[in-house]
Design goal:
EC number: 1.1.1.44
Protein name: 6-phosphogluconate dehydrogenase, decarboxylating
Bound molecules: 6-phosphogluconic acid
Distance between the termini: 87 Å
Subunit structure: Homodimer.
Shape: globular
GO molecular function: phosphogluconate dehydrogenase (decarboxylating) activity
Radius of gyration: 25 Å
Keywords: Gluconate utilization, NADP, Oxidoreductase, Pentose shunt
CATH topology of the largest domain: N-(1-d-carboxylethyl)-l-norvaline Dehydrogenase, domain 2
Number of strands: 11
CATH architecture of the largest domain: Orthogonal Bundle
Largest sheet: 7 strands, mixed
CATH superfamily of the largest domain: N-(1-d-carboxylethyl)-l-norvaline Dehydrogenase, domain 2
Structural class: alpha/beta
Amino acid sequence: STYSFGMIGLGTMGRNLLLNMADHGFSVTGHDKSEKMLALLEEEGKAHNLKGFAKVEDFIDSLQSPRTIILLVPAGKIVDDVIAEITPLLSEGDIIIDSGNSYYTDTTRRSQELKEKGFHFFGMGISGGEEGARFGPSLMPGGEKAAYSVVKDLLEAVSAKVNGEPCVAYIGPGAAGHFVKMTHNGIEYAIMQLLAETYDILKNGLGYNNAQIQQVFEKWNNGRLKSFLMEITKDVFLFKDEKTGNLLVDEIKDQAKSKGTGKWTSQIAMDVEVPLNTIDASVAGRNLSKLKDLRVELEGSFGKAAQIENKEGFEAQLEEAFYFAMVSAYAQGMHLLWKASEEYGYELNLAEIAKIWRGGCIIRAEFLQDIYEAYQKNANLQHLYQDAAIQQKLQTGLKDTRKVIASAVTAGIAVPCYAAAITYFDTLKTGRMPSNLIQAQRDYFGAHTFERIDSEGVFHAEWNKLS
Ligand code: 6PG
C-alpha cells in the first residue's frame, strides 16, 4: 500500500482537491467509475504523476492503514451507495470523510451506523467552489475528535490561509460540520439576494447603467464591505456576451435556482425556533423569482416600480443600508449556530467558526474579522447585536438604512431582504412586543391559556362573556 489519502468522486471538485493535496506533498490517489474523469485526473495531475483507479478494490488496496477516504460525490443516496460499496472492503479504524453538502440528519445517521461497524466518519463542509478546492477552501470537519488527529495536517495544509492561519478547525461531534456548512450557505443566500436587491435599486431606483453599477460595487469592495461575493458581483458587470455584444448579465433569465442548503437552513431554524428573517426572505426570494408568468401578469395589472424620489446622497446611504442588512444575515446565521450547538450538543466554538470563514469560503468578508473579535471577547455571546463594537456601527447607519428602505418601498422596488433586516432588528430591540394580543386571541378561541405579567402560573379567561 502506497498512498496516504484517497478520494472517491473525481468531478471538478474532487480532482481539484486531490491536486491541491498533491501540491502539498501528500501521496494521494483517486477512484471514479468514469473513464473520462480518470483521464482528466491523469492529464491535470501530470506533474504529480497522479493516477486514479477505476476498480474500487484496487483503490482501497492502494491505501495505507488506517485508510482515509474522502468522498466528493453528490449529496443524497449516492453517498449511501458509495459507503455501502466500500465498507465491506475496509478495516476497523478506517476513516471516511463525506465532503458533499449532505443533509445534517443523514450525517448523524451515517456516523452512528459507521461507528457501530468500527469506522470513523466525518461530515465535512467544504466551501470555496472549484477555485477554493484547487487552491485553498474553507473546511468544516465534524465527527469523532480522536480521529481528527489523523487528518489534521492534511486539512490544514490544503485549506486557505488568513495571516498564515489555516481556514479549518475541528468543528464538533456528529453532524456539526455539515450543520455549520449548511448555515454558511443560508448566509450565502442572504448576501447574494442583498446584492441583487442593491442592483435593482441602483438600476431601477436610481437609473444607473451597468458601468455605473459596476463602479459602485467596486468602490464598496475597497471599503468595509469588501467580500468575495461583492468582488465577483462587480466583475459580473464587466463580462460581455459574445453572442449579443451586450453584458451577459442582461441576457440571463431572472429565475434563480437552488440545490436546497438555503432552504434547509430556514426549515431547521424554524424547528429550533430561531428567527432568520433575512435568510428566510432570500429563500423566498428565489421562489418568487420562479413565478415569472405571474409576475409579468401582475406587473401588467399594477404597474412597474418608480424611481427613487430623492437621489441626493442616496448612494452613500445605500452603503450604510447594505452594511446594516449584511450584519443581520451573519448575525442570524451565528444565532442559529449558537442555538443548534445547545440543542444538538455540537459544542461549537463560534469564534473559531468566524475565524475559518475569513478565507476560502463563499461568504468570506472583511466583516468576519469583526465577528471573530466579538466572539473572542465573549465566547457565549447570544447574539452579535449585543457586541458593543457592532452596536456602534449599526447605530451610526441606522437613520440612512431606514431612509433607503423606506424610499425603495415608496417607489415599489422589491427589497425583501432589506425589509426583513430592518424588521428583524426593530423587533429584536422591542422590549414589549404586541404578542400579548396573540396570547389573548389564542385563549379566546381555543382556551390555550396565557401567562400574566403580575403573577406566576397559567390563566384562562371567559373572553366571550364580555361584560
Ligand atoms: C460553497 C457553496 C456551494 C454551493 C453552491 C450552490 O460554499 O462553495 O455554498 O457549496 O453548492 O453555492 O448552492 P445553490 O445551488 O443552492 O445556490
